[in-house]
Amino acid sequence: MRTLIKQAHLHDARGDHGVHDLYLRGDRIEGVDLGGEVDHTIDAQGNLVTPAFIDLHAHLREPGQEEKEDLASGLAAAAAGGFGTVVSMANTTPPVDDPGLVAALALKAERLGLARLRPAATLSRGLKGEGLTDFAALKAAGAVMITDDGIPVADAHLMRRACEYAQDLGLVIQTHSEEPSLRQGGVMHEGAVSQRLGLPGNPAAAEAAMIGRDCEIALLTGARVHLAHVSSKRGMQVVEWFKAQGAPVTCEVTPHHLTLTDAALASFDPIYKVAPPLRTDEDVAYLREALRRGVVDNIGTDHAPHTRAEKERDLLEAPFGIGNLEVTFALLYTELVGSGALSLERLLELFQAGPARVMGWPTPTLEPGEPADLVVLDLEASRPVTPATFRSKAKFSPWSGQTLRGWPVMTLVGGRVAFEGV
């Protein structure tokens, strides 16, 4: 199968290459402006064609929580958001702590023909924070990351043992940085807004303290530790300090922590209830600056869908998390690139080369022979967020009705069209 993507404005980690005809052969990139017979033609109409995005942090809920999301809906949502590869979190029911389950998830996802799935597996057996899982067997089955994400690893000795084990195997440990005894029952950021609303708060100190502990363990063991969803100025300052000391740590920021603040909770709407919580304007500004300065390694969606009934409970009882795979790029392109806060090149790096570096994967490029995992972006397309059209089962959004610019219009995975929009 030979495919021509004509009038493609090509861009990858090497730079902007202008408008060309891009040829694919099977599941690989063949080259540029080659000519000759093709089996299929896609007209990119001058839109940006670039390597498909990588998300290192998505909750796809399968197995056991399919009422919230499943592999089919979650990977379809990922493709609609421009993602060609997704690392699925392991806090499912049962947790992904068994090599057979890792292999089964990977096989099922491959058969779907949507975005690629790279499963994460749990750090502790049953997500109980006690004994370690068999990292070697999990890696052999296809697990690419070890994490108890959703639940902090409270036991520092267990985290040290996990890091030593992971370092021997070349695996990345991803953390959930909230010190449990400081977090307590907080449902939002601890600060002026939580005090005014009379809601239990979760202080930024809980995040900063756990980040500091895990960075020290990374320095001690040499393990690669990836700090998930850093949400606060103080937490990011701790990351910066340890990076300057040579700690082998990386970090991500989510779209919601870059665009929303704790002021949204004044509505008492649980759609804004996330973990870690939305912080202050000062925190958002600092995270954006950390993006610009290169402190942040990647954007992680932390796509965490729930049923509408769950998110319509009382704020104190509703679960943490929101779905965002389909809007993440357009949201950040609008809010950051559109405002001049970040360059397009840097934003793309955070979705492509950045996450690849975190995992030790090859940098995605448009070089001949590279996988034909591509996204076509219409940077001029402007439309409101319409959750009813989401591929995800979570058909509601904090950004519902907000007009965003810069939408994926097609995603190819292995040379196949996994998503085609308007």
TrEMBL record:
It catalyses: (S)-dihydroorotate + H2O = N-carbamoyl-L-aspartate + H(+). Keywords: Hydrolase, Metal-binding, Pyrimidine biosynthesis, Zinc. Transmembrane segments: none annotated. Its cofactor is Zn(2+). It is an enzyme of class 3 (hydrolase). The active site is at residue 302. GO terms for biological process: 'de novo' UMP biosynthetic process; purine nucleobase catabolic process. Zn(2+) 2 binds at residues 149, 176, 229. Zn(2+) 1 binds at residues 57, 59, 149, 302. Residues 46-233 form the Dihydroorotase catalytic domain. Pathway: Pyrimidine metabolism; UMP biosynthesis via de novo pathway; (S)-dihydroorotate from bicarbonate: step 3/3. Gene3D superfamilies: Metal-dependent hydrolases (3.20.20.140), Urease, subunit C, domain 1 (2.30.40.10). Substrate binds at residues 59-61, 91, 306, 320-321. GO terms for cellular component: cytoplasm. Binds 2 Zn(2+) ions per subunit. InterPro entries: DHOase, DHOase/Allantoinase_Hydrolase, DHOase_cat, Dihydroorotase_CS, Metal-dep_hydrolase_composite, Metal_Hydrolase. Its EC number is 3.5.2.3. Catalyzes the reversible cyclization of carbamoyl aspartate to dihydroorotate. Belongs to the metallo-dependent hydrolases superfamily. DHOase family. Class I DHOase subfamily. NCBIfam families: PRK09357.2-2 (NF006841), pyrC_multi (TIGR00857). This is Dihydroorotase.
